[in-house]
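Fill-in record for TonB family protein.
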Amino acid sequence: MPGRKGITLALCAALAACSGAAPVAQRANRPMAAGSIVGAQSPLWDTPASLVSGDAPVYPINEFLTGGEGHAEVEFTVTREGATRDITVLSARRPAFGRHLAAAVRGWRFEPARMDGLAVPSTLRIEFDFSIDRGYNAPPSPRDREYQRERAGGR
């Protein structure tokens, strides 16, 4: 659904258990800005891995049509060549969110982390929030309210 208005995806990048990256707004199925995902500092490398190219995940059509919102979190390895591998879905509000995020990550390319000038593999963990922009005064759907309660820690 390239170009479909009203779909906004927010992305938070973190390396392993480290965080600190600001959310980056993305549109579904659009190229992501180079450098929008950068791993955190670590004693394992001098320079962290940084996104070179890739598309944001496609919003799952069934979730979009029913107003479903949520998040997914994946962990993956960036190889010495900058490819991604060993992609694991750690959590997902709905299984489709995890599948779509993992599929997007498969196509991402990185500038690998470097130690003493040499490329080294690194592990990154990202969380991607899938949300539908309904306009300024649109009331939240029942699924939105359920998701907001879950994110706030109440069930």
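KEY FINDING: The mean pLDDT is 75.
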